[in-house]
Design goal:
The protein is about 85% helix and about 0% strand. By secondary structure, the chain is mainly α. The protein has one domain. α2 runs antiparallel to α3, α4 crosses α6 and α5 runs antiparallel to α11. The longest helix has 25 residues.
Length: about 240
C-alpha cells in the first residue's frame, strides 16, 4: 500500500517537475515522508529526479542558458552544496526545515503579489542578494535534496521565458543530483533496496514525464509564473506541517 501511494505521488510530482522545471523532490518529500523515513526516501527521490532531469536536458538542450547557469547559479549554489551535505551527515535538519519553510512561504507570497501587481514583469534580484540566495539554495539542497525554492526565486526573475527556465533548471538539478548521488555512494548510504524501489517507480516517472510535457506546452507564460510561486508556497507549507 505504501509503495502504491508513493507511485501515485511520483506521477504527480514528475508531471509538475516536467511542466515547470522544478518541484518534484520537495513535493514527493513533503508527502512521501509520511510513509517512508526521510533519509531512505531522499536517496530514492534523487535517483528518480536525476533520470527526469537527464531527459529534459537532452530534449530541451538548445534552451539552456549556459552563461547564467555556469557563471551564476552553479558557481554560487555549488559553494553551498558541500556544506549542506556535511550538515546532512552530522546534524538533524528539523529546526532548519521550519525556518526554511517560513522563509519560503513569505517569499512566495511576496512574489505572487509582485507578479499580480506588475502583470508578470519582475526585475532580477540585486547581485549581492542573488548570490546569497544561490549559496543558501545550494546549502539547503545538500540537506534536503530540495534547495529548489531558493534557487527558483532567483532564476524565475533571471529566466522569464518558460522553456529556458525549465531547461536551465533541469541542467542544474542534473549536476547537483549527480553530486548528491556520488556523495551517497561514497558514504554507503545507498542500499540494494533503494535500487529496487527506484526501478519499481520507473513507470510512474515515465507517466509523469508524458503528462508534464503536455502541460508545459499548453500553459502561457503568466500562468506559468503564477503556478511556480504557488508550488513554492505549497512547498513551504509542507515543510511547516511535517
Amino acid at each position: 500500500m505504501k509503495l502504491a501511494i508513493l507511485f501515485a505521488i511520483i506521477i504527480l510530482a514528475q508531471a509538475i517537475e516536467t511542466a515547470l522545471g522544478f518541484g518534484s523532490t520537495v513535493f514527493s518529500l513533503g508527502i512521501g515522508s509520511y510513509f517512508m523515513p526521510i533519509k531512505e526516501l531522499v536517496v530514492v527521490l534523487v535517483m528518480i529526479a536525476w533520470l527526469q532531469a537527464l531527459f529534459i536536458v537532452v530534449r530541451a538542450f538548445k534552451h539552456i542558458r549556459w552563461r547564467i547557469l555556469l557563471t551564476r547559479i552553479l558557481l554560487f549554489a555549488g559553494m553551498g552544496l558541500p556544506v549542506g551535505i556535511w550538515f546532512y551527515r552530522h546534524f538533524a535538519g528539523e529546526q532548519l526545515k521550519i525556518v526554511f519553510g517560513i522563509f519560503i512561504v513569505a517569499a512566495s507570497l511576496n512574489e505572487l503579489w509582485s507578479l499580480w501587481r506588475k502583470k508578470g514583469k519582475l526585475k532580477p534580484l540585486p547581485l549581492p542578494l542573488g548570490i546569497l540566495v544561490l549559496i543558501l539554495g545550494g546549502f539547503v539542497h545538500g540537506i534536503f535534496a530540495s534547495g529548489g525554492p531558493l534557487i527558483v526565486i532567483y532564476s524565475c526573475r533571471e529566466l522569464p521565458d518558460k522553456s529556458s527556465f525549465r531547461a536551465t533548471m533541469s541542467a542544474l538539478w542534473l549536476v547537483l543530483n549527480s553530486a548528491l548521488l556520488i556523495s551517497f555512494l561514497v558514504s554507503h548510504q545507498v542500499r540494494p533496496a533503494d535500487y529496487q524501489t527506484a526501478l519499481i517507480l520507473l513507470p510512474a516517472l515515465v507517466i509523469g514525464i508524458l503528462v508534464g510535457e503536455i502541460l508545459h506546452h499548453k500553459v502561457n507564460e503568466f500562468i506559468f509564473k503564477i503556478v511556480i510561486q504557488f508550488i513554492l508556497l505549497l512547498t513551504g507549507v509542507f515543510m511547516l506541517i511535517r
